[in-house]
Amino acid sequence: MRILITGASGLLGINLALEAAAHHEVYGTAKDHLIHTDRFRVMPCDLLAPGAVERLLDQTQPDWVIHCAALANVDACEANPVLAQQSNSDLPFLLATHVARGGARLVHISTDAVFDGRKGNYTEEDEPNPLGVYAHTKLEGERRVAQADPHAIIARVNLFGWSISGNRSLGEFFVNNLNAGKRVMGFTDIVFCPLLANHLAQILIKMLENDLSGLYHVVSRECLSKYTFGLRVADKFGLNSSLITPTSVQQSDLTATRSPNLSLRSDKLASALREQTPDVTSGLERFYELYLQGYSQMLKRLESRDW
């Protein structure tokens, strides 16, 4: 299959592009972090520019489109709600409209943050209640994609992994700081279900291969606090867990409101694919294996400032 991946320089995008390129012809868009690789075709593109989406689809003629690009920095969304609206709602709707017209299959990447986190254990049937600009615009993006392309897959995710910049995921945050001997906070009152980006990439491809459509929670079957996650990272990498201070998110300097309990159920996906999603233990094992193989350093070398 010919796959177009938007946001291919991001945390999910780069891992997805590399995983997919082993078996498919892959095109990936990049804007802020331009990358150079012979594993897939990199398409420099500002998706918000007039006519960019139409030109991109015409140039690549994809069978599948996986839309990872977004304004995902929660605090940046609070600071610039207009850009958040354009990136997280308007762009997905435009892309879904043109993908549907062309007959390709679309996966739209959304977020667990559409819920307010007051009860947890959410299913796809639960009514979202977004708390901030990021969550509001992502939920609107979900609904507009479903309107424009009813056959699209909408995947609510939470992930960690290795990135080009080296600082895009919570896993990297703990590894980098603990390696440097720095003391960090670990939130005891924020619960999530993170999937390794590489595992998430493989699942998204399986969802397309199985011709799924509609809304799915694509998260780990294991949920835990961010503090506990930090302890697990430290244990796997042989780092000093005493440097992680258990604390409440209320004591942090984060500006945007965070949902406390984002435990999501992935039963619907497990039933559709006839297999459970990986747990955090297997994700951290693979995360560590990739580290030993020099994967994180390889990703950093992909960044190129010269085209």
Structure characterization notes:
With 307 residues, the chain is α/β, with parallel strands linked by helices. It has a domain at 2-164 and 195-221 and 264-280: Rossmann fold, CATH 3.40.50.720. Helix content is 41%, strand content 17%. It has eleven helices and 13 strands. It has helices spanning 11-20, 52-60, 74-79, 81-102, 133-148, 170-179, 197-209, 226-237, 267-273, 280-292, 295-301; strands spanning 2-6, 25-30, 41-44, 64-67, 105-111, 153-157, 159-160, 184-187, 191-192, 195-196, 214-218, 224-225, 244-247. It has a seven-stranded parallel sheet with strand order 3-2-1-4-5-6-11, sandwiched between helices. β5 (105-111), α5 and β6 form a beta-alpha-beta unit. The longest helix is centred in the N-terminal third of the chain and has 22 residues, at 81-102. It is globular. The two termini are 27 Å apart. The mean pLDDT is 95.
**Structural class of the secondary elements?**
alpha/beta
The mean pLDDT is: 95
Report the sheet-strand fraction. Answer: 15-25%
Strand order of the largest sheet: 3-2-1-4-5-6-11
The CATH homologous superfamily of the domain at 2-164 and 195-221 and 264-280 is named NAD(P)-binding Rossmann-like Domain
The shape, in one word, is globular
Poorly predicted regions are none
Count of DSSP-assigned helices: 11
Task: Describe the largest sheet.
Answer: 7 strands, parallel
In short:
This protein is of the alpha/beta class.
Features:
307 residues; alpha/beta; Rossmann fold; two-stranded parallel ribbon; 11 helices; 13 strands; globular
